[in-house]
Amino acid sequence: MKISELVTKEISPLFKNDIKLVEVEYVKKADGMHLIVYIDKEGGVSIDDCVAVNDLIDPVIEELNPTNDKPYVLDVSSYGLDKPLKYDWQFKKYANQLVDVKLYKKIDGRKEFTAELVHRDEKSTYFKLKDKTVTISNTDIASITPYIEF
After folding, report:
1. Does domain 88-146 have CATH number 2.30.30.100?
2. Three-state secondary structure along 27-49?
């Protein structure tokens, strides 16, 4: 089992309040290996939220020793607006907002577009595009990310 999967399995039960665990990554950076725990919550993540989660998960990860005593830095971070939506609660959070959509294959001559996210179910995602609702099979969608206006 990968380190990120092992850590996710062990710390997931600790998230019982409004803060949600989104993803765990174990990656190499310039200063060494980092175990990054991404979190999210309605209204956004604060530094205090990151500190609270760090204090909650650090003893569990220390006891788990997922790297077999190899050094790493534990980072707790907000998931970020540039990251793809993954979970039902994220799709509900971004309902009626603009999202960027990337497809595996072209539909109506396009692989990428920006549209309003209407709803997502087990099989399809529904978007409002130019005053009409478009339904796309989830298997055709590579990623959906929040739209960021510059």
Report:
1. yes
2. EEECCEEEEEEEEECCCCCCHHH
